[in-house]
TrEMBL record:
<feature type="domain" description="3-hydroxyacyl-CoA dehydrogenase C-terminal">
    <location>
        <begin position="187"/>
        <end position="283"/>
    </location>
</feature>
<dbReference type="InterPro" id="IPR022694">
    <property type="entry name" value="3-OHacyl-CoA_DH"/>
</dbReference>
<feature type="binding site">
    <location>
        <position position="144"/>
    </location>
    <ligand>
        <name>NAD(+)</name>
    </ligand>
</feature>
<dbReference type="Pfam" id="PF02737">
    <property type="entry name" value="3HCDH_N"/>
</dbReference>
<dbReference type="InterPro" id="IPR006180">
    <property type="entry name" value="3-OHacyl-CoA_DH_CS"/>
</dbReference>
<comment type="similarity">
    <text>Belongs to the 3-hydroxyacyl-CoA dehydrogenase family.</text>
</comment>
<keyword id="KW-0560">Oxidoreductase</keyword>
<feature type="domain" description="3-hydroxyacyl-CoA dehydrogenase NAD binding">
    <location>
        <begin position="7"/>
        <end position="184"/>
    </location>
</feature>
<feature type="binding site">
    <location>
        <position position="275"/>
    </location>
    <ligand>
        <name>NAD(+)</name>
    </ligand>
</feature>
<dbReference type="InterPro" id="IPR006108">
    <property type="entry name" value="3HC_DH_C"/>
</dbReference>
<dbReference type="InterPro" id="IPR006176">
    <property type="entry name" value="3-OHacyl-CoA_DH_NAD-bd"/>
</dbReference>
<dbReference type="InterPro" id="IPR013328">
    <property type="entry name" value="6PGD_dom2"/>
</dbReference>
<feature type="binding site">
    <location>
        <position position="93"/>
    </location>
    <ligand>
        <name>NAD(+)</name>
    </ligand>
</feature>
<dbReference type="GO" id="GO:0019605">
    <property type="term" value="P:butyrate metabolic process"/>
</dbReference>
<feature type="site" description="Important for catalytic activity">
    <location>
        <position position="141"/>
    </location>
</feature>
<dbReference type="InterPro" id="IPR008927">
    <property type="entry name" value="6-PGluconate_DH-like_C_sf"/>
</dbReference>
<protein>
    <submittedName>
        <fullName>3-hydroxybutyryl-CoA dehydrogenase</fullName>
    </submittedName>
</protein>
Length: 284
C-alpha cells in the first residue's frame, strides 16, 4: 500500500500543521476547507512557520518554495480526494460533522484510499461505520504543535485492517513522527491521561486551593512539564478540553471524569484560551 498523494481536511491549527509536515516529508498535499478564507489562513500559518525556519538557517528559500508548492489549497471536496491515497481529517470535534464528512469522503475518494481521522477522543469505530470501507478507516492523532511534537497515536477501529494499520504506521515514520499503537476507547491513551490532569488543575483553582500561576509553577518546576496544565489548557482550547472531558464522562459513565464547573463557566463565557485572547490567562 504505497502513499504518495495526501489530503488534509480542515486548515485550522492541526490540519495546517499536518499538511506542512506532510509536504516537508515530500508528499503532494491537498489542503481542503469549507471557505477560501480558512484555507488562506492555514497557508499563511505554514508560510510564517517556514519563514522562521529559513531565518534560523534550517531551510533555504528554494526549499521553502518547494514545500509550499507541494501544498494545493482547495475548497472542492471531490477535487481534493480524486487522486488521494490517504485523507487525514482534522475538522471540529463533533461526531455528526465527522460522520457526515466521512460519508462524503467515502463516496468521492478512490476505493484504495485510507480515511484517517485526527480526532482527539471520538470513537474511530463509529466514524468508520458511516462508510462502506470500515477496514480502511483509522485514527491518526497528531499532537499540537504538529511540527514539533513527535507522537502520533495510531488508533485501530474494530474493523481496521492490518494492512491499513501498517501503512499508517509507516507513513507516520516517513513524516518523522513516532507512532504508538492504541485501541479504540474514549480519549485513547493521550487524552484519557492528560485531560483528567488538566480538569483536576481547574478544580484546584475552582476550590481556591491555589491561583492558576501557582498551579502551573508546581507542575512546571516540580514535575518538569514544559507547560503548566492551565497554560496547556489555554493552548489546546478550553472548549476542546471540555468536549474531551464530556466524551470521557459519557463514554465511561464514571464520575471521576466530571468536567469542572469552572471549565464549563469559562467556555460559556467564550473564554476559550489563547484563540479568543482569554482563558486562565489573557493574551494580546
Ligand atoms: N508551532 C510550531 N512550532 C512551535 C510552536 C507552534 N505553535 N511553538 C513553539 N514552536 C517551536 C519553536 O519554533 C521552537 O523550535 P526550535 O527549537 O526548532 O527553534 C520549539 O518549538 C521550542 O519553542 P520555544 O523555545 O519557543 O518554547 P518552548 O521550549 O516552551 O516549547 C512547546 C514550546 C514545544 C509548545 C512546549 O512548551 C511544549 O512541549 N508544550 C507542551 C505541548 C503539549 O503538551 N502538546 C500536546 C497537547 S495535547 C494535544 O495536542 C492532543 C489533544 O488531542 C488535545
Amino acid at each position: 500500500m504505497s502513499i504518495r498523494n495526501f489530503t488534509v481536511v480542515g486548515a485550522g491549527q492541526m490540519g495546517s500543521g499536518i499538511a506542512q509536515v506532510a509536504a516537508q516529508s515530500g508528499f503532494t498535499v491537498r489542503l481542503l476547507d469549507l471557505e477560501e478564507a480558512f484555507v488562506r489562513k492555514g497557508m499563511r500559518g505554514i508560510d510564517k512557520y517556514l519563514f522562521r525556519q529559513v531565518e534560523k538557517g534550517r531551510l533555504t528559500e528554494t526549499e521553502k518554495g518547494e514545500v509550499l508548492s507541494r501544498i494545493r489549497p482547495t475548497t472542492d471536496l471531490a477535487e481534493a480526494v480524486r487522486e488521494t491515497d490517504i485523507v487525514v481529517e482534522a475538522v471540529v470535534e463533533n461526531m455528526e460533522v465527522k460522520t457526515d464528512l466521512f460519508k462524503k469522503l467515502d463516496e468521492k475518494a478512490p476505493g484504495h484510499a485510507i480515511l484517517a481521522t485526527n480526532t482527539s477522543s471520538l470513537p474511530i469505530t463509529g466514524i468508520a461505520a458511516a462508510t462502506q470501507r470500515p477496514d480502511h478507516v483509522i485514527g491518526m492523532h497528531f499532537m499540537n504543535p504538529v511540527p514539533v511534537m513527535k507522537l502520533v497515536e495510531v488508533i485501530r477501529g474494530l474493523a481496521t485492517s492490518d494492512n491499513v494499520f501498517e501503512a499508517v504506521e509507516k507513513l507516520a515514520r516517513d513524516m518523522g513522527k513516532h507512532p504508538v499503537e492504541v485501541n479504540d476507547s474514549p480519549g485513547f491513551v493521550s487524552n484519557r491521561v492528560l485531560m483528567p490532569m488538566i480538569n483536576e488543575a481547574v478544580y484546584t483553582v475552582y476550590e481556591g486551593v491555589a491561583e492558576p500561576e501557582a498551579v502551573d509553577e508546581v507542575m512546571k518546576l516540580g514535575m518538569n512539564h514544559p507547560m503548566g496544565p492551565l497554560t496547556l489548557a489555554d493552548f489546546i482550547g478550553l472548549d476542546t478540553c471540555l468536549y474531551i472531558m464530556e466524551t470521557l464522562y459519557e463514554g465511561f459513565g464514571d464520575p471521576k471524569y466530571r468536567p469542572c464547573p469552572l471549565l464549563r463557566k469559562y467556555v460559556k463565557a467564550g473564554w476559550l484560551g489563547r484563540k479568543t485572547g482569554r482563558g486562565f490567562y489573557t493574551y494580546e
